[in-house]
Specification:
Helix content is about 20%, strand content about 25%. It is an alpha+beta fold. Bound molecules: fe (ii) ion.
Length: about 700
């Protein structure tokens, strides 16, 4: 949608629950008094979901018990000599003093500046935003994608690095927006006194204290909207995050932690089974809506407040053929905010964002019955055939789902035999997604998926006899379930549409895994036919700890399979993360590398069938990723920083570990995508 009428714009603003401003034709100097008072706007400013003609602007101005009237100015210049739009908006306690203004009538692909001020002229900091290019704009678009930031356990240096690089980039290379793929906040909070030993390499920072909250074991979780609000406010006081929000428009989609660690629909699970939590799901949605400026819909369509539906935490026991809990409070809770949406950026980019938690069915390998497939003898590994059978449920093998699954000497009951296949998107969202994918006219159809789609697997069937117990599976092993990489039925449905309809330029960007991955999307791997249909990129976490850090702290020193995960090299301060090699090359390469330290000999033993879909894996990387799409190609850049244990005091955010690029030329219908890799700076070690 390039341009809309003023009337259409106003109805759009109403549907989104935002105050509205329409840009005037003739710019004029600012007439509103403004003196910067950051202390009165402690969470800064933000903009979100840019379109070619407008953007959503945000701030928070806390007060006493009366609403505070604010004036917004939008200008073409940072001195506000050319103001093009003004609006009035009220900060109210009902929305926790947050304010959203939808601005329309702006020019495409253009930088704007904005600021808020109260009646006294006490003003917010100045924000910068950028509108999207018009639909036919042929220029390339570059954006960053990020996920998983936790300032209580690590520093957000990645944002400082991103700002530093963007300020120095040529105009055509600057970021058009930042795509945040979730875990913007972590609702699971360790208070320092509950964990004096800290968390892996990190000392805990005392940033979040829930006014209500619930303590579970050694962590605290929110129980009320005031708890979730405290979480967002604490995070937005981080200077690196706040500066990033003031510099670029953000496009945000939640992952799990915006609601609950193991949450699905409006259920929570802290290890003792599913617990209905409709009231908390509504609270999480309300806080997200209040703190993330976005073009998302609420049923109430209020201009200024969320209007939370009244729900109770009723048991959710009846699920339909798509795994959706039909309990009315569940439907009201997940219906209180619809996050999936599409945004267009010029000729080459359609961004399709999906929600991986509100509609998903229960994750099969998260159930207690699935523990039979896990064993400390084979850390992280689950037989692939078990993952596939459990995913498919009654649809396995054309309806011939087995009563049990062979595992070593045991026959494990197939508890999924009578249940529908796993879905992550749910029926309604999936229909929307496939429809948008089919109808897209942009060169690149980029799926913004909070979770990674690339398989992570290993080949324990190739372990030499006698090293440990025999592998109880039939062949390959997956690294457990929980994301689209083990939703085999659903991903095949999506990828089959892409293949059948000869859709090109399909790519997926994701977060969640706290690791950098580059590869190709395919519904199956060898020994099945490997037929890639798109490019997949996964970004490392901004700060949250990843698998390598966890392995360094938790993996037993004398485990017979330690070499598959970590290699202890003489004189090295840390073990080498052979798990990166395991995921790409398999067990024989890891054993060789741990024994000899000889990379060439290790790679010569690579099992090329293990991961033909992967070009890069670094399970220990932090930082951010950027993507550039054009009429010819897609190019990603992984910007990896050292483990962000402390905040960098330098304006560049600290040193780089490495910068690696992956490029895929646009393929023609019927052709396969391929990836080229280039290490531009630093050394990705066993990742490349
Ligand atoms: Fe995360």
């Amino acid at each position: 949608m390039t341009s809309i009428s003023r009337r259409e714009f106003l109805s759009l603003a109403t549907a989104l629950g935002a105050s509205a401003a329409w840009a005037c034709v003739r710019p004029r100097p600012s007439r509103a008094p403004w003196t910067e008072r950051r202390d009165l706007f402690p969470e800064g400013v933000a903009s979100g979901d840019p379109r070619a003609d407008g953007v959503v602007l945000w701030t928070r101005r806390p007060g006493g018990d009366r609403p505070i009237s604010l004036t917004l100015e939008v200008a073409e210049d940072p001195a506000f000599a050319r103001v093009v739009a003004t609006a009035r908006a009220a900060a109210t306690p009902e929305a926790d003093w947050t304010v959203r203004v939808l601005v329309g009538g702006l020019a495409p692909a253009r930088e704007y500046f904005y600021r808020f001020a109260d009646a006294n002229g006490d003003g917010s900091r100045v924000g910068r935003t950028i509108t999207a290019p018009a639909d036919e704009d042929p220029r390339a678009v570059r954006f960053a994608f990020v996920s998983c930031q936790d300032p209580t356990t690590g520093a957000l240096n990645a944002y400082r690095r991103m700002i530093h690089e963007d300020e120095r980039a040529a105009p055509a290379d600057r970021l058009a927006f930042v795509l945040h793929l979730g875990d913007f906040v972590y609702e699971v909070v360790n208070y320092p006194e509950d964990r004096p030993q800290g968390y892996y390499d990190r000392a805990l920072r005392d940033l979040v204290r829930y006014p209500r909250g619930q303590k579970i074991r050694d962590f605290h979780v929110p129980v009320h909207v005031d708890d979730y609000r405290v979480l967002y406010r604490a995070y937005l006081h981080d200077p690196d995050l706040q500066d990033a929000r003031a510099r670029w428009p953000f496009v945000c989609m939640w992952d799990n932690h915006e609601f609950s660690w193991n949450g699905w629909q409006s259920l929570q699970n802290f290890g003792a089974g599913n617990v209905p939590a409709q009231t908390r799901k509504v609270a999480a949605n309300q806080a997200w809506w209040e703190y993330q400026p976005a073009r998302v819909a609420t049923p109430a369509k209020s201009l200024d407040t969320f209007r939370a539906p009244r729900v109770t935490d009723a048991p959710i026991e009846r699920f339909d053929a798509h795994g959706l809990g039909r309990e009315p409070n569940n439907l009201a809770a997940i219906g209180s905010l619809t996050g999936y949406r599409a945004l267009r950026f010029g000729r080459h980019l359609d961004l399709l964002l999906t929600d991986q938690h509100s509609y998903r069915s229960e994750e099969p390998t998260g159930r207690p019955e699935a523990r039979a497939f896990q064993s400390p003898d084979f850390p992280e590994l689950v037989p692939q055939e078990a993952l596939e059978i459990l995913d498919a449920g009654r649809a396995w093998d054309g309806g011939r789902s087995p009563a049990s699954i062979r595992h070593g000497d045991a026959d494990v009951p197939n508890f999924r035999r009578a249940e529908p296949p796993q879905t992550i998107l749910g029926a309604t969202q999936k229909a929307w997604f496939l429809d948008r994918l089919r109808r897209s006219r942009a060169t690149w159809k980029v799926w913004g998926n909070s979770q990674g789609v690339l398989d992570w697997r290993a080949d324990p069937q190739n372990l030499p006899a006698g090293l440990t117990r025999p592998w109880p599976g039939a062949g390959y092993a997956g690294f457990g379930g929980g994301d689209p990489s083990t939703a085999y039925v659903e991903r095949a449905e999506i990828y089959d549409v892409v293949a059948r309809e000869r859709i090109t330029g399909f790519a997926c960007v994701a977060g969640d895994r706290h690791s950098f991955w580059a590869g190709l999307m395919a519904k199956a791997l060898p020994p099945a036919a490997f037929e890639p249909v798109g490019v997949a990129l996964i970004t490392g976490s901004i700060s949250a700890a990843g698998l390598v850090e966890a392995l360094e702290h938790r993996f037993p020193e004398r485990h017979p399979l330690r070499a598959l995960y970590l290699a202890d090299r003489p004189g090295a301060s840390r073990p080498a993360p052979t798990v990166n090699m395991l995921l790409r090359h398999g067990v024989r390469s890891c054993l060789e590398y741990a024994a000899s330290g000889d990379l060439a000999r290790a790679r010569a033993l690579s099992n090329s069938d293990n991961a033909p879909h992967l070009a890069f894996v670094d399970m220990g990387g932090h930082g951010y990723a950027a993507v550039r799409v054009s009429g010819e190609d897609i190019e990603s850049e992984f910007v990896c920083i050292p483990r962000p244990v402390t905040r960098s005091e330098t304006s560049d955010g600290g040193p780089l570990r490495y910068r690696v690029r992956h490029r895929a030329a646009l393929w023609r219908p019927g052709e396969r995508p391929t990836l080229e890799q280039r290490v531009v700076e630093g050394d990705p070690g066993l990742g490349a």
